[in-house]
Amino acid sequence: MAATLILxxxxxRRRELLAxxxxxxxxxxxxxxxVPAAGESPEAFAQRVAREKAxxxxxxxxxxxxxxxxxxxxxxxxxxxxxxxxxxxxxMLRALSGRTHRVLTAVALIDPRGHVEELLVATEVEFQPLTxxxxxxxxxxxxxxxxxGAYAVQGVAGKFxxxxxxxxxxxIGLPMEAVSALLRRHFPPRGAESGA
Length: 196
Known about the structure:
This protein is an alpha/beta fold and 196 residues long.
């Protein structure tokens, strides 16, 4: 059975979340560099990268829907993507310590005709104050290094979180409430077309 939906992401978290939709899909990772342009806002950056990921994979695969996403953490206008190394991860976690930051996930869906639909979801996450020892212990787990903002809310870093205001799945990497509504418009449940 050929997939009619492609997830343009290598993220295992996004794959697990999208599986909750019940749709059959295939994963084709994109190679788009995730580097902000000079003066680019966190919102514009996330939206551009998600769109470019979707377009790159759509050029390779025809007659399918392509779904892509990009998640960034932002505080004080700074963009925190995946840390480059332990020092970068430590810098991010220090900045988030004891404060509220925003997690932005941009989503782009390209249909077989090339039409692009986009959405952007923001969630606020409040962190408790983190000691230097707590940050070092967390870095030692290895968890932060492939995560935007250097943490995984669904992992060990969950203990750092005081409150999440908005979509939790958005913080994990794919805002399923919004994505499910988007996909239902393109993949109606069986029987919905006939009003059953």
